[in-house]
Q: What sequence folds into this?
């Protein structure tokens, strides 16, 4: 029965937020949404997926799928898609899922559109929405034939609270190609203790010259810690030696797209903007009411960051505790 | 209160950039003819030499495995080329006699043109001075031209080496024997980074310096060989390319606003607006760097100019798609070096100052001088001859003097200096010079170096428009649009004094179109010495700082702007 | 030991649409994409070759003829040979078509190791190597931040959202490297000047036994339908800090957005 298959990734016993968001989106399109889970000992996760919109959950539970490696998953999904005839396969972007989606595309000769932020049905066909050219233009992309594979940008869809739906759970057989099992995971990743890197962080607190002196970065570090995020810096302060180059965001530094970007004392020249403009929400704090950053912030706060940031940190801490 | 940039000479010693070859002989790279700079001058020289060698295979043999090499400091030919431009096709015809205009990298012939005198609100058409008649000339993109010439050169077997800066002149016993290229992969304090790659000695039988305005080794050579007894002066041009909804059908030049005519300001220049095909327009502001108000910013004058109703009408509904800046040598005939050849080498093009300011022409002179240098070079590699034989290259100076290049420049030689007397007097003097075909005024006017002009903190900066991101822009947005991605940790290529009088610092801050200079800390009252901060990675290598008290050195090859078709 | 390095060429259809067909001016952003090829994969290949004292590094690319200029830069850095698949029929190929063509070109070389680089531009997906490994039926290691070869195996540390894994795969395999893996060298002047002399092959689809129907738009399974303006961020909400209550207002805003 055609419909959309959603690849649900799991981590430490739970489905990832991104996968749940994509599942919810798939279910909302009309037509059935099914989910596929791959791993070892992951069957318990299947039960929760009905609440997020899956009508059927396919479970591929096998020791060979224990490590989060892509190629065996391509085997599982390919077989499933060929047997069930799905119209579309959705993925929430991650290192693993991108590799799976790409491998599946080659296996099935199926078109893959990536970095999508949305998808809709237009006249019976699926149309994906994708920002391009540094988010300056939105491209409508389509698929010409065969199953449509879609990779969605992290954070495109928030998972709902979970409804009352239940799903039929089907266990599927796993048969793997020779070459798929040749890569071995010798050591598996564990949560980093030092806090997220700026590329992975959901929240970034960034500082620029408006901080006035390098010591003020400790204010930002406190806030980042309270919010569970990372600290970034502009080129100007990195040049001046206030913060390491690894934290530099901008044209000649890193490009980040966190859910929240708190820019403190940053004027917002284009060299900085291109490194963070696709952040979900941008809050800027600056003394200068005409700072360019206010042109593209969601919340513009004109004030003294030395007063505001410590207070903000305190309030966030309180909130977290309650 | 005033101050002179020349009183704060940059920490720079030309001697550091002259050296004997230091690489072991088997590691040196040997080429036949070495040309520094893949601009119109250098490429015309390369092409001409390539054409001549095709007919003289035995001479080609003598030049070894790499008969002709052209070094280019930009990422590719065109990356550092910028001009208006309206080109006289004469040199193209001389270099490519078999091609017709349609085959040449020219956009369109100039059909209509107008010269306007602007006031704040109005544009008054005035008769075009004869020097500015462009009938028979073509609008072109210098960057496109550079790319096209590079392809023609490669077809003739010329090796073009991009991302390679010529940092030092190789001199042995008073003879120029080649250049040493710059290191790559050094850090901010010149320390060697993980991917450090040392420069190399390139030795050649003859070296042609075609570095363009403020050429690094050109300046070194002129100093070393004592060739420049007369000062050169420069103008700074800032240019934008716009996509426009309505085609422009004319080549336009303006004078007057936003420049001030009063003598004490010494604001000489104007703007150009050229159609680049049906849907694009080039617009630029060019101002002599001998102005006196430290708050004058050519970048911001251009932004102001765009707000004038006459200009606005052309750009309305359009979009800025490119930006760049470059200096133009303006001294003309009166600033020409005493000789453009030295033992082992020659200087061509803008580096030699071969620009006709009143006509705004320099490209065809660059090409013509390149061709003449190539012909002299060929002569110098005959059996029994070398480029170091005394007098071997003076044929170039001779040929140049007999060419239209020299004659054109001589005729208009007093026009630019006339304008230091203010717009009205200047126009009168200039008019006299033109109508007398250069015989008036009877005594040549004198030029003084731009850095010798005292500057004061005036009020020119008071009316620059706040950038609105649609019509007017800030400097950092402009730098971004130039494609400049110079790495932040590269060593600074700018030699400039860091403690200077505030007037001089402000002059640099406003002069620089790329926001390289800033005054550190709070503003102090005029007259004090302030600290200057330099963000060298913003630099688009326009050369303005070299004219006004600092010195642009050789940046890491491949850095700087990446102009697409300027 | 033969190492094949793929220079990325999944064309960004959106960028191509920016070309104004009326102007004589070539859209250099298209060229720019090629010129920005991944030097990290090439650098790693050169290190592997230098480390083992022997071997051949071949650079491969599917692109228009012009791309040979960029491939020469790879030769200048130290690659031994360049292979360019330039065929008009390949223009407009999406991931499916490109991976197919590139895989055939790689198979022709029978390399021991295939290195692919981190995609640079914002519209590049992290997908080429996944498709390549599948078509070549070779084991895949992606996002490699380090690479060691010993006993016929490739061992890599790689970064995911959750930290670092260590993966191992037997040769021949496909390794996609992240830009954390190394600092690419600058080509030496000798390298630059000697590049032209190194072997450069240009292949057509015929040479690879790839049917024109499998390449270009015909062979693609995705398409660009339209370009529109992105939704604006919406109006900026503004807070002027007067009563010293900005912090409270910020928290309230963040709470509303479910960010805290």
A:
């Amino acid at each position: 029965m055609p419909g959309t298959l959603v690849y649900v990734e799991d981590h430490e016993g739970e489905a990832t937020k991104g996968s749940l968001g994509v599942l919810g989106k798939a279910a909302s399109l009309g037509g059935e949404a099914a989910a596929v889970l791959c791993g070892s000992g992951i069957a318990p996760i299947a039960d929760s997926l009905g609440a997020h919109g899956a009508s059927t959950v396919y479970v591929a539970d096998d020791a060979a799928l224990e490590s989060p490696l892509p190629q065996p998953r391509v085997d599982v999904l390919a077989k499933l898609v060929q047997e069930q005839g799905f119209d579309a396969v959705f993925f929430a972007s991650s290192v693993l899922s991108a590799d799976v989606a790409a491998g599946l595309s080659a296996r099935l000769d199926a078109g893959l559109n990536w970095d999508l932020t949305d998808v809709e049905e237009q006249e019976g066909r699926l149309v994906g929405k994708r920002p391009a050219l540094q988010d300056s233009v939105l491209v409508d992309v389509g698929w010409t034939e065969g199953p449509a594979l879609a990779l969605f940008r992290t954070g495109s869809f928030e998972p709902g609270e979970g409804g009352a739906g239940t799903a039929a759970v089907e266990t599927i057989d796993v048969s793997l190609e020779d070459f798929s099992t040749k890569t071995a995971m010798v050591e598996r990743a564990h949560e980093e203790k030092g806090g997220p890197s700026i590329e992975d962080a959901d929240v970034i607190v960034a500082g620029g010259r408006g901080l006035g002196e390098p010591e003020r970065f400790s204010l930002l570090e406190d806030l980042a810690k309270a919010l569970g995020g990372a600290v970034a810096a502009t080129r100007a302060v990195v040049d001046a030696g206030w913060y390491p180059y690894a934290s530099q965001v901008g044209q000649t530094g890193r490009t980040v797209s966190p859910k929240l970007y708190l820019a403190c004392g940053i004027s917002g020249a284009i060299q900085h903007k291109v490194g963070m403009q696709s952040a979900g929400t941008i809050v800027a704090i600056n003394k200068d009411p005409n700072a360019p950053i206010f042109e593209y912030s969601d919340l513009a706060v004109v004030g003294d960051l030395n007063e505001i940031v410590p207070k903000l940190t305190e309030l966030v801490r309180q909130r977290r505790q309650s | 209160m005033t101050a002179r940039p020349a009183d704060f000479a940059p920490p720079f010693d030309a001697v550091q950039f002259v050296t004997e070859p230091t690489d072991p002989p088997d590691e040196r790279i040997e080429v036949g003819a070495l040309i520094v700079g893949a601009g119109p001058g250098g490429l015309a020289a390369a092409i001409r030499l390539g054409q001549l060698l095709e007919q003289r295979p035995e001479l080609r043999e003598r030049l070894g495995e790499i008969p002709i090499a052209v070094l280019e400091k930009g990422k590719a030919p065109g990356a550092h080329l910028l001009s208006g431009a309206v080109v006289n096709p004469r040199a193209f015809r001389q270099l490519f006699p078999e091609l017709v205009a349609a085959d040449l990298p020219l956009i369109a012939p100039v059909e209509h043109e107008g010269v306007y005198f602007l006031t704040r609100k109005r544009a008054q058409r005035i008769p075009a001075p004869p020097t500015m008649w462009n009938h028979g000339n073509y609008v072109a993109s210098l960057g496109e031209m550079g790319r096209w010439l590079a392809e023609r050169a490669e077809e003739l077997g010329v090796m073009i080496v991009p991302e390679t800066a010529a940092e030092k002149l190789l001199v042995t016993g008073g003879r120029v024997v080649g250049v040493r290229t710059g290191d790559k992969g050094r850090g901010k304090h010149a320390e060697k980074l993980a991917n450090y790659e040392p420069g190399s000695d390139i030795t050649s039988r003859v070296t042609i310096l075609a570095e363009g305005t403020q050429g690094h080794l050109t300046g070194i050579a002129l100093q070393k060989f004592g060739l420049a007894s007369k000062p050169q002066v420069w103008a700074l041009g800032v240019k934008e390319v716009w996509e426009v909804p309505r085609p422009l059908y004319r080549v336009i030049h303006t004078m007057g606003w936003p420049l001030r005519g009063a003598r004490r300001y010494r604001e000489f220049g104007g703007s150009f607006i050229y159609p680049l095909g049906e849907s694009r327009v080039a617009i630029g502001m060019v101002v002599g760097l001998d102005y006196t108000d430290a708050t004058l910013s050519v970048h911001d004058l251009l932004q102001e100019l765009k707000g004038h109703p006459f200009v606005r009408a052309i750009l309305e509904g359009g979009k800025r798609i490119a930006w760049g800046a470059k200096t133009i040598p303006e001294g003309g005939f009166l600033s020409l070096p005493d000789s453009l050849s030295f033992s082992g080498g020659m200087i061509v093009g803008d580096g030699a100052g071969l620009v006709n300011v009143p006509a705004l022409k320099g490209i065809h002179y660059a090409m013509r001088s390149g061709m003449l240098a190539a012909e002299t070079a060929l002569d110098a590699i005959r059996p029994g001859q070398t480029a170091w034989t005394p007098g071997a290259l003076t044929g170039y100076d001779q040929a140049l003097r007999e060419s239209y290049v020299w004659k054109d420049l001589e005729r208009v030689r007093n026009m630019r200096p006339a304008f230091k007397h203010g717009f009205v007097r200047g126009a009168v003097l200039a008019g006299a010079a033109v109508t007398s075909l250069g015989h008036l005024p009877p005594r040549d006017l004198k030029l003084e170096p731009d850095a010798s002009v005292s500057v004061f903190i005036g009020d020119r900066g008071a009316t620059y428009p706040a950038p609105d991101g649609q019509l007017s822009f800030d400097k950092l947005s402009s730098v971004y649009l130039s494609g400049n991605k110079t790495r932040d940790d590269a060593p600074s290529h700018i030699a400039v004094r860091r403690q200077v009088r505030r007037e001089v610092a402000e002059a640099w801050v406003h002069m620089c179109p790329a926001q390289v200079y800033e005054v550190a800390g709070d503003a102090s009252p005029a007259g004090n010495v302030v600290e200057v901060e330099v963000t060298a990675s913003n630099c688009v290598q326009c050369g303005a700082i070299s004219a006004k008290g600092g010195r642009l050195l050789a940046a890491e090859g491949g850095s700087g702007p990446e102009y697409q078709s300027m | 030991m033969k190492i094949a390095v793929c220079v990325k060429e999944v064309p960004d259809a959106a960028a191509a649409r920016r070309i104004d067909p009326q102007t004589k001016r070539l859209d250099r952003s298209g060229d720019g994409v090629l010129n920005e090829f991944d030097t990290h994969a090439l650098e790693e290949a050169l290190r592997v070759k230098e480390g083992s004292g022997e071997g051949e590094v071949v650079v491969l690319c599917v692109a228009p003829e012009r791309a040979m200029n960029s491939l020469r830069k790879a030769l200048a850095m130290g690659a031994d040979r360049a292979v360019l698949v330039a065929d008009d029929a390949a223009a407009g190929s999406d991931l499916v078509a490109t991976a197919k063509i590139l895989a055939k070109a790689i198979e022709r070389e029978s390399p021991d190791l295939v290195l692919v680089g981190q995609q640079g531009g914002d519209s590049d997906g992290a997908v080429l190597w996944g498709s390549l490994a599948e078509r070549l039926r070779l084991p895949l290691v992606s996002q490699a931040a380090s690479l060691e070869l010993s006993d016929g195996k490739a061992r890599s540390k790689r970064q995911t959202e959750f930290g670092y894994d260590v993966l191992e795969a037997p040769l021949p395999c496909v390794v996609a490297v992240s830009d954390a893996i190394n600092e690419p060298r600058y080509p030496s002047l000798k390298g630059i000047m000697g590049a032209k002399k190194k072997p450069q092959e240009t292949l057509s689809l015929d040479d690879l036994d790839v049917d024109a129907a499998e390449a270009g738009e015909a062979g693609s399974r995705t398409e660009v339908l339209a370009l529109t303006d992105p939704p604006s961020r919406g109006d900026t909400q503004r807070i002027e800090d007067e009563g010293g209550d900005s912090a409270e207002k910020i928290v309230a805003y963040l709470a509303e957005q479910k960010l805290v």
In short: Chain B has one domain: 29-181+196-475. The interface with chain C takes residues 29, 66, 69, 75, 107, 141, 144, 159, 161, 163-164, 181, 184-185, 193-195, 197, 199-200, 202, 243, 277-280, 564-565 of chain B (CB under 8 Å). The first helix of chain B runs from residue 40 to 55.
